[in-house]
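Page 42, continued from yesterday. The earlier attempt failed because a stray header line got pasted into the input along with the sequence. Redoing it now with the clean sequence only.
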Amino acid sequence: MLADAFVEAFSLIASFNPDLFEILLLSVRVSLTALGVSVLIALPLGAMLAISNFPGKRIVITCLNALMAMPPVVVGLLVYLMLSRSGPLGALGLLYTPTAMVIAQICLITPIIASLAHQTMEDLHQEYAELFSSLRVTKRRAVPIYLWDARYSLITSVLAGFGRAVSEVGAVMIVGGNIDHLTRVMTTAIALETARGELALALALGIILVVLALIVNAAVMYTRTYAQRRAYG
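This time it went through. Structure tokens are written below.
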């Protein structure tokens, strides 16, 4: 039975099953959208935390690091409360839509990317601080310089964020509702199809998800190796 399920799973992938690839495309679209917004927020935030000194900075950094371990279901619950009819954003009607899933993923991966970016930028700032101070480079001008100089390390942070987003199930299940042809993504579909006993589709989605994870990890390793080669000539 298990062997038959694997055979059928590979058949679904090879035949470009419409339902399978609809779920795949929605998953990638939601995760990439969330990643794009998170990058615009997290990278400048990480850089500013690295080069700025202000009262309570360590508290902000501690909170940011703590948010990296925030349970996804808690994030999903908070976003649900914000978007529900009785919530402050309920009038927008975003609950159980792909937009709600994007918002949940943004809340999940922004702290991850920002925290990793902060660590990278802090090391770079220690190296360049005296030089920039002597040249009177303002913090606003320093941020894009740091972002460009650390671009290979930051790519690793961004890829880690994407991997976290595309594999998320708890938060997107709560705010998306796992509605067929609307908010059903790979992780929620795997959970549903497994509960139904439809192992072929669940396995097919699982295989694709594992392949995506391997691609992301390979990209991270390649980026690190390439950055090291450039650094050491």
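Notes: The chain has a mean pLDDT of 88.
Reminder to self: strip header lines before submitting.
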